[in-house]
Amino acid sequence: MTDDLEQYRIYRNILVIDLKSFYASVECADAGLDPFKTPLVVADIARGKGTICLAVSPYLRAKGVPGRLRVFDLPKNEKIIFKKPRMHRYLEASAKVVSIYLRYVSKEDIHIYSVDECFLDFTEYRKLYPMPLKELARKILDDIYQETKLFATVGIGPNMLMAKLAMDIEAKKNKSQIAEWNYEDVPYKLYAITPLSKMWGIGTKTEVKLNRMGFRCVGDIAKSDVEIMKKRFGVLGEELWYHTHGIDMSLIQDKKKYKALSKSYGIGQVLFTDYYRETAPQLFLEMSDELSSRLRATEKYASVVHLYLGYNQDFGGGLAHQVKLDTPINLGSDITDKCMDIFNRYYHDEPIRNIGISLSGLVSKEGIQLNLFEDVTKKKKEEKLFDTMDEIKRKYGKNAVRRASTELDYSTAKSRNEEIGGHRE
Fold it and tell me: Which one-letter DSSP state was computed for residue 131?
């Protein structure tokens, strides 16, 4: 089997670097605090105890506190320091770290996976850095700490998958925070992993399906027939089977040649007071306007509208339903109407604390067929009006022009427009 798989193996020099507890560590660094000794939490405590914590310090993580939870779930025996989220500062810190990477490799050899995680391909730079990859990784970590006071973890491998697995499974537990995996390590380090969701690329839902097939550890999948995986999960099943052998044929450089196409657009918000039948529809309208702006920016229309409502913690539960449309839409008013159809049919006066709206079944503007029962001229005028509003917002800010209803006390549009990713700038 090893000989058969050799043709699919690539041999690169990949490093993946993850900044530890990034947001919390930036706050500790700015305050001159040791993140491994400080119980710091990034959360806007002014929003109440129900607010979600954006990050917790490595000190709290070591004590078993998860990275994401609500303020009221934090341990009561710690003198926690709260820091209000500052997204501009975190983006600034991330850019500074990327500038350090750019001293080592060109931008074509960097893949920014997230604001705190990047892949670097050193294959073409080995003559420039004639040292073991672990030594090179340590040099980069030292540079990051010296210039930003941030700590990081590094995984090294012959491909992006192996580097990521080395980091997630081994490096984060090592004192050095560095781990290197090669193909020879797969049977000893990868096969034993259980539960399956610990492996990058396997979610909890997929794990349940794999468990039902009798797979409990990664080695069970690796030793199975690839055709069984392909029959059960399609192309993704075949890819997963290869991943269990440490095989990943994607290259960082290939990721520069295309842009991923979004199959859906979504937006959500956590509320800090209960909303009901009288107040929730205003938020549907505001969120629909934001989604419709994204549709227009990409010249897309949506044919499926999905509404999610989460109820107050004391009440529990929620609802989630979708409606499929014969004629795709892209106007906020149309999206709101569909949300209201779901709302009026399934909502029964429960206290709402979470709202999510998503659009899928996206089609291009050219593929839209006109609805003979609609006033096409009116629709075009409305689209033109909102195109103009979009242009004003891009030029002068999201709050430059708004619906009059956003002045209502229970509206959240003004405050959300001043945030990045749901947090104050």
Answer: S
